[in-house]
């Protein structure tokens, strides 16, 4: 009952703020602000009605504070490295509280703080990129998928707070799918708020014995895309020249800021429907594989490598650099195959089941077959097929 009331209140508040912002004489971009107020209202309802665990009442305010502080600092153009320090202090502060309660060891808290900062920034980067691509519904849809996935995970974990919070996050995310902001409106608060809530859900799932592979599954394609893009920004002469024009201090900030160069962004720019289908399919495949490997008891490191095969395959098939030449495409497919081989070796050593031994290489074979279908001219040039 408490969760239902909290979800309805969060949905109503978020919807109300979005409607108010659109009906003003000068429409406002207030998606992040709406998520903040909706989540706060739902959290207060959970607390008042006794439907929130102590852990939820620790991580939810921390997540909202993290998102709010990051949004304010970004709006005031505070440098990314300085914002990293503030993020680390806030995240570590929440984890220290959990450490003092005896919920985790100090070493685990330190590791979780580092991973939390990285994960938070990946989500902020991805949401910002989606807004710059005029695709505001994509982060909301991904948030809904992740919330639904974690509701299923919560049903199998001894953590009653995870399911309730996941439903609340889904409730405040639904209005973002229906009520989009004004065209070309960039909301600096949206990424931090979604990042903070995503981090809270991941932390709850992890403390409830979810593996790292399960926690990262809904955003793994985004993680792969962001890492690849940041590497490309440092490895290509054109990107380095553009960054060096700012001076080294500003160049670091520009390097970590979203632009128009994510693989998903470029695919979306070429064809909105095709780009969304590719990204949606790989995300659903990764999430489905995560659930399947969890249900059959696959060791988490093996599961992570299994999830990486389709995520890397999508990157190789969509990134312009890989499709530019046969050599580049073979390099990418070789990387996918290597990850599949490593997954098979680990499955043989840690799991031992024949199906788990075959599955990583089978996924790599699917990527190769897809490459033959969509990049046949690059992979098999006319001279080679004559």
UniProtKB/TrEMBL annotation:
The keyword Transmembrane helix applies. This is Uncharacterized protein. The chain crosses the membrane at residues 45-68, 80-99, 105-126, 138-157, 163-182, 189-207, 213-231, 275-294, 300-317, 329-348, 354-374. Keywords: Membrane, Transmembrane, Transmembrane helix. The keyword Membrane applies.
């Amino acid at each position: 009952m408490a969760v239902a009331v909290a979800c309805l209140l969060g949905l109503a508040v978020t919807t109300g703020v979005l409607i108010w912002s659109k009906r003003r004489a000068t429409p406002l971009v207030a998606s992040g602000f709406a998520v903040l107020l909706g989540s706060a209202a739902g959290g207060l309802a959970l607390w008042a009605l006794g439907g929130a665990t102590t852990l939820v009442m620790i991580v939810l305010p921390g997540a909202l504070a993290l998102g709010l502080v990051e949004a304010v600092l970004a709006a005031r153009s505070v440098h990314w490295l300085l914002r990293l320090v503030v993020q680390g202090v806030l995240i570590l502060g929440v984890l220290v509280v959990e450490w003092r309660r005896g919920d985790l060891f100090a070493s685990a808290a330190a590791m979780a703080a580092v991973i939390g900062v990285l994960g938070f920034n990946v989500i902020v980067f991805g949401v910002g990129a989606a807004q710059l691509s005029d695709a505001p519904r994509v982060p909301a849809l991904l948030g809904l998928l992740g919330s639904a996935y974690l509701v299923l995970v919560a049903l199998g974990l001894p953590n009653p707070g995870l399911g309730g919070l996941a439903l609340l996050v889904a409730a405040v995310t639904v209005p973002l799918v229906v009520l989009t902001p004004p065209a070309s409106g960039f909301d600096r608060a949206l990424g931090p708020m979604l990042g903070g809530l995503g981090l809270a859900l991941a932390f709850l799932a992890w403390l409830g014995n979810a593996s790292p592979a399960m926690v990262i599954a809904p955003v793994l394609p985004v993680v792969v895309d962001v890492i690849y893009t940041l590497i490309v920004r440092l490895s290509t002469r054109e990107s380095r020249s553009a960054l060096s024009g700012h001076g080294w201090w500003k160049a670091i900030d520009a390097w970590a800021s979203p632009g128009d160069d994510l693989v998903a962004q470029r695919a979306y720019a070429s064809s909105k429907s095709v780009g969304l289908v590719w990204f949606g399919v790989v995300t659903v495949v990764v999430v489905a594989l995560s659930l399947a490997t969890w249900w059959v008891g696959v060791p988490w490191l093996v599961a992570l490598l299994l999830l990486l095969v389709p995520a890397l395959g999508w990157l190789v098939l969509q990134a312009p650099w890989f499709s530019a030449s046969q050599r580049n495409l073979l390099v990418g497919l070789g990387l996918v195959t290597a990850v599949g081989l490593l997954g098979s070796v680990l499955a043989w050593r840690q799991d031992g089941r024949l199906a788990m031994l075959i599955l990583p290489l089978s996924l790599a074979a699917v990527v190769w077959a897809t490459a033959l279908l969509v990049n046949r001219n690059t992979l098999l040039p006319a001279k080679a097929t004559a």
